Amino acid sequence: MEKFKVAISSILPFFFICMSVYADEGMWMLGNLNKQTRKAMKELGLQMSADELYHPQKPSLKDAIVNFGGFCSGVVVSEEG
């Protein structure tokens, strides 16, 4: 049993050190986009500029999001998706 504990205690740190975790999924807050995030979005296929996506004072994609009674949201999607 002691050998098992020693083996586990020496293997687990190695496993956690070698394991890579990337947080590239989920919700990106539009007001907090930085250059690295914008670059990643372009690499994933985004075809609009950062100002077209989000600008606090000018019209942008953020203005296309609607809110229904505080419980749901929706967007308008063109025929091309």
UniProtKB/TrEMBL annotation:
Keywords: Hydrolase, Protease, Signal
Gene Ontology BP, a term: proteolysis
Transmembrane spans: none
Enzyme Commission number(s): 3.4.14.-
Enzyme type, top EC level: hydrolase
InterPro entries assigned: Pep_S46
Gene Ontology molecular function terms on file: dipeptidyl-peptidase activity; serine-type aminopeptidase activity
Pfam families named in the record: Peptidase_S46
Cross-referenced PANTHER family: PERIPLASMIC PEPTIDASE SUBFAMILY S1B (PTHR38469:SF1)
UniProt-recorded name of the protein: Dipeptidyl-peptidase 7
